[in-house]
Amino acid sequence: MSGRHQNRFVRAPGGFERVEACFSGVAFAPHRHDTYAIGVTLEGVQSFDYRGAARHSLPGQLVILHPDERHDGRAGDERAFAYRTAYVAPALIQQVLDGRPLPFIDEGVSGDPRLRAPVMALLSDYDRPLAELELQDALYDLATAMQAVAGQARPLGATNRRAALEARDYIEARLDEGLSLDELEQAARHDRWQLSRDFRKLFGTSPYRYLILRRLDKARDAMLAGRGAAQAAADCGFADQSHFGRLFKQSFGLSPNAWLAAGAHDRSIRTPSRRPN
């Protein structure tokens, strides 16, 4: 792999977040997503620390990281590594599983054939947006395959989905405000601590983490549109740029400037040499 392919990522077209990336050396500092990160290694050795152990994914192997699990990212040898990843909201998986626990693939790396087809349905045809029904079918197949591989069949205790959804909508409508669990309790008409538990069941993260990630998403969009990091931080409700920078790196594994630099590449230099099939 030539040097021109290193340290870059490209988003796929469409509203569903899919990324193809290539990095050498230490790629990401320890961080967490509020989504599943579900991907395939294309080239090299994709290594990361996850749940207390070093994991290594070779070309063709799948990487499935649970929401809110801390992990990093690095090349497993002297070569660069390339991968594709889809970021899947836990609520989309919950809608398919209808009240069962979010599936947990403990090792983070899998070669299970039950997972391969639905993951590739999301990631193989990367140059076009996924049609809505196509995406829904792929997510259904993915959720049921993950459930089968994880071996989880027990239903959760009663979950107030209405309250959790109303709390989410309340947060998204007020991203720039300082919110409290008291406010969410009033907005959702549901006990604050039960609401906090139900929110985690449905979205895989806490209300506060959800708020921070949505603010960071908004700030990323602003920076991609040409706004400076300091202005984006101020516009999106962060106390100061240093606070913004710390939260950004904790969530995405890169500083805002490094993230912008890695994404400043034309689609024409995207690595085509080994397409998943």
List the helices and strands and how they pair.
Layout: E1 8-11, E2 18-23, E3 26-31, E4 36-43, E5 46-50, E6 53-57, E7 62-65, E8 71-75, E9 81-88, H1 90-97, E10 109-110, H2 113-123, H3 132-150, H4 161-172, H5 181-188, H6 192-203, H7 207-224, H8 229-235, H9 241-252, H10 256-263
Notes on the protein architecture:
This protein has 277 residues and is of the alpha+beta class. It has two domains: 3-155, Sandwich (Jelly Rolls); 161-260, Arc Repressor Mutant, subunit A, CATH 1.10.10. The protein is 42% helix and 19% strand. It is built from ten helices and ten strands. A six-stranded antiparallel sheet has the order 1-2-9-4-7-10. Helix 4 packs across helix 6, helix 4 packs parallel to helix 7 and helix 7 crosses helix 8 (229-235). Residues 266-277 have low confidence and may be disordered.
What percent of residues are in strands? Answer: 15-25%
The H/E string reads: EEEEEEEEEHEHHHHHHHHH
Radius of gyration: 19 Å
Q: Poorly predicted ranges (pLDDT <50, ≥5 residues)?
A: 266-277
CA-to-CA gap between the ends?
20 Å
Residue share in helices?
Answer: 40-55%
